[in-house]
């Protein structure tokens, strides 16, 4: 179901998660991918562009990269949920007996199949159901309903010769009353014309249908909009059931088109079997096409993932003896994913050879967690050029990260010392030649002496 959209979304989120910075290029890239995938799903171009604009605007606000990543992922997720209707809507059963659900729609939209699926669905949930065949136009309609009813083991009321639907209804009315729910299959037309509207209105009124549900097949994509709008206007529908979601790439277009008209999508049909029907829930639908349990899991990933290329670049910089707050940032960011701090020490040339007591590293690890929060609240400029961080900015970072200003000052001090150390020629290659005594001193410096 919607494989293409699914793979593009997964890709997009991975791109965001593994980017170091969310800049204009990445945002444009992501938007282009999204646009292409949504348009291929036959989502209305107007909706696609509105969504793109929202994402662009939010993504380029001044925020730290981590905030931006989280925000972007959440934003794209929420916007897609929103064009799919936000909340799940169910047929609100009134518990009258029998509660009559009338299915309407054009030829071939899936009414008869859906009637059996719905009866099967409610029956499984403890309600006694029956089906009533009022499609008097198509000669084979009663047999089709009968066969499906037999498969579902649901009682079915049909009359293979009668051509007046109200007569059929009257014939079985007393029997239908015994059931909690009666699903009523009606006749379709090639197009929504007056004949169909009149028939639906007449049936609905005389039968006293509590619910009228429009059935639309998803392969018509955004053309579902006109149908949903017209049926909604003329026939007072509860909502829509979209069928054949399993066989088309245009399902997203059909759903968003219905939502745009204000018609709620109640169920989706996902196959030819009786059980292939599900309550449509936009949030879980998006989670599923993203192939993840929930949004939290994805956000967690965004916090941890660093691409191998980025890792390599970082190692290069360390070897060259350049150690910026950005490098520190990258290390902190991956800390949880990488395990103990000794791993970070390993990456600093020479340091890895030292035996730094593990307790020392743990203690420092706790403190570094605080730094991570602080750096996450900085902007790109601040990370690359910590000299720009004045008292005002320290206060802002403190507020944003919920880390005391004293810790932030300590972090900046630590950064300056590390930078000075590498800048003084002690770093990089020269580490190799350092004697044990010097290294031990350095270890002490890194592990314990700094107060932050
Ligand atoms: P009606 O004319 O509105 O009653 O439509 P039908 O119920 O006869 O369905 C038309 C065709 O669509 C049939 O061949 C069904 O098997 C098929 N169909 C209906 N719903 C689904 C679905 O969710 N998935 C698939 N793959 N086929 C479906
Ligand atoms: Mg039919």
In brief, what are we looking at here?
The chain is of the alpha/beta class and 452 residues long. Helices cover 58% and strands 9% of the residues.
**What CATH architecture label of the largest domain applies?**
3-Layer(aba) Sandwich
Q: What's the number of helices?
A: 20
What is the mean predicted local confidence, pLDDT?
80
CATH fold name of the largest domain:
Rossmann fold
Low-pLDDT parts are 335-344, 346-363, 422-440, 442-452
Structural class: alpha/beta
- The tally of structural domains comes to 3
Kindly state the number of beta strands: 8
Bound molecules: guanosine-5'-diphosphate, magnesium ion
Radius of gyration: 31 Å
Largest sheet: 8 strands, mixed
> Which bin fits the share of residues in helices?
55-70%
How many angstroms separate the termini?
53 Å
Structure report:
- By secondary structure, this protein is of the alpha/beta class.
- The chain has three domains: 81 residues, SRP54, nucleotide-binding domain (Four Helix Bundle (Hemerythrin (Met), subunit A), Up-down Bundle); 192 residues, P-loop containing nucleotide triphosphate hydrolases (Rossmann fold), CATH 3.40.50; 146 residues, 434 Repressor (Amino-terminal Domain) (Orthogonal Bundle).
- The chain is built from 20 helices and eight strands.
- The C terminus is likely disordered.
- The structure holds guanosine-5'-diphosphate and magnesium ion (MG).
- Magnesium ion binds next to helix 5.
């Amino acid at each position: 179901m919607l494989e293409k959209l699914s793979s593009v979304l997964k890709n997009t989120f991975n791109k965001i998660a593994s980017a170091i910075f969310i800049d204009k290029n990445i945002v444009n890239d992501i938007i282009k991918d999204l646009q292409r995938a949504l348009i291929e799903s036959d989502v209305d171009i107007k909706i696609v562009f509105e969504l793109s604009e929202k994402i662009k605007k939010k993504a380029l606000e001044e925020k730290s990269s981590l905030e931006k990543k989280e925000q972007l992922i959440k934003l794209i997720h929420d916007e897609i949920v929103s064009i799919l209707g936000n909340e799940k809507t169910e047929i609100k059963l009134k518990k009258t007996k029998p509660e009559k659900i009338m299915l309407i729609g054009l030829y071939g939209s899936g009414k008869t199949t859906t009637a059996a699926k719905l009866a099967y669905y409610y029956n499984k949930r403890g309600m006694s159901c029956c089906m009533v065949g009022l499609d008097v136009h198509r000669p084979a309609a009663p047999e089709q309903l009968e066969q499906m009813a037999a498969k579902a083991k649901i009682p079915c009321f049909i009359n293979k010769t009668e051509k007046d639907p109200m007569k059929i209804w009257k014939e079985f009315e007393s029997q239908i009353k015994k059931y909690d729910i009666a699903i009523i299959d009606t006749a379709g037309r090639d197009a929504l014309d007056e004949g169909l509207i009149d028939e639906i209105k007449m049936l609905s009124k005389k039968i006293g249908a509590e619910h009228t549900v429009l059935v639309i097949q998803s392969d018509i994509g955004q053309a579902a909009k006109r149908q949903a709008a017209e049926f909604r206007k003329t026939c007072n529908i509860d909502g829509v059931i979209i069928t054949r979601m399993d066989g088309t790439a245009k399902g997203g277009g059909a759903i968003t088109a219905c939502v745009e008209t204000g018609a709620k999508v109640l169920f989706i049909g996902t196959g030819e079997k009786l059980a292939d029907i599900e309550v449509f829930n936009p949030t879980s639908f998006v989670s599923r096409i993203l192939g993840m349990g929930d949004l939290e899991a994805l956000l967690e990933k965004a916090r941890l993932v660093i691409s191998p290329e980025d890792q390599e670049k970082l190692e290069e910089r360390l070897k060259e003896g350049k150690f910026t707050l950005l490098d520190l940032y990258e290390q902190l960011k991956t800390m949880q994913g990488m395990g103990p701090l000794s791993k970070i020490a390993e990456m600093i040339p020479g340091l890895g050879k030292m035996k730094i007591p593990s307790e020392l590293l743990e203690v420092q690890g706790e403190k570094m967690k605080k730094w991570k929060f602080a750096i996450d609240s900085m902007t790109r400029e601040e990370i690359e050029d910590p000299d720009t961080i004045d008292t005002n900015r320290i206060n802002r970072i403190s507020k944003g990260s919920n880390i005391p200003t004293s810790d932030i000052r300590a972090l900046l001090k630590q950064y300056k010392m590390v930078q000075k150390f590498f800048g003084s020629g002690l770093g990089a290659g020269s580490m190799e030649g350092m004697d044990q005594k010097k290294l031990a001193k350095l270890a002490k410096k890194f592990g314990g002496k700094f107060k932050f």
